[in-house]
Amino acid sequence: MKGMRGIEISVGIVFIAAMAILGYYTILMGQDPFEGKELREFRVLFSDVGGLSVKDRVFVKGVLSGEVEDIALHEGVVETVLKVYREFPVYENYVISIDTNAVLGGKQINIDPGTKKSSDGRPLNELPDSFQFEGRLNDVMRSIGSLIDDNRANINASIYNLRIFSEKLNTDRSTLGRLVGDDTLMNETEGLVKDLRDTIEDSREQAPVTSFIRAALTAF
User: 3, 39, 70, 107: least CB-packed within 10 angstroms?
Assistant: First the structure.
């Protein structure tokens, strides 16, 4: 009885500790990480946002820096309003993309602010926050789907050829099919490998004798 009571007390302590940790992180995650911080506003146009939502996070070079405040559709173009609190310059070679959050799922916006100079050393201008930025959607599944659609004819032809090859392989009239289904080829191959192995071993055993004869002949 005392043993059972001890187990029950231990389980109760673990349960209470787990609930306390869960409550702590619930409160922590419920807080606004940008509250009280001075925010900058960026307006970014996308042709497609792929399910992006308000409150999705914005990262600058992988660092959490803001969130999506608004999404609106205007004449076939999606205009998003981003609020970020970190100070960073944005140059002409910036890249803004919508990506899938690999850990939590959903979408996030990644900003690469660019550099002062281009790859060929040409100086680049710094852009103001009021600049009309443009972004792109990085959707792996859509890219795969587009690739399949663009190459559907080649894929169908490859599948058809594979089926024909498989059918021929399964028929006795096919030379390759007979070779695959016949154990003779396998047995002959194993015998060849064994003979080769024996030859190599004989060569190793005769190597000292051969070396001695070669040395004796050289001496004369």
Answer: 3
Mean pLDDT, 10 residues at a time, over the chain (220 residues)? 62 76 56 65 94 93 93 93 92 95 81 93 93 88 57 74 68 57 64 75 60 51
Concatenating the DSSP letter of every residue in 81-144 gives: EEEE-S---EETT-EEEEEE-TTT-SEEEEEE---SB-TTS-B-PEEPTTS-EE-EE--HHHHH
The per-residue pLDDT for 80 is 96
In terms of DSSP bridges, do strands 40-46 and 90-91 run parallel, antiparallel, or are they unpaired?
unpaired
Q: Specify whether the CB–CB gap between 71 and 78 falls below 8 A.
A: yes
How far apart are the C-alpha atoms of 88 and 61, rounded to whole Å?
11
Helix residue ranges, H only, the chain: 2-30, 140-150, 152-169, 175-181, 183-219
118 φ, ψ (degrees, to nearest 5): -80, 175
Per-residue pLDDT of 91-105, as tens digits, reads 999 999 999 886 666
State the angle between helix axes of 152-169 and 140-150 in degrees (0 to 180), rounded to the nearest 10: 70
Q: Which residues touch 95 (CB under 8 Å, ≥6 apart)?
A: 111, 112, 114, 136
Question: What residues does 77 pair with on adjacent strands?
Answer: 74
| pLDDT tens for each residue of 102-115 | 666 689 999 999 99
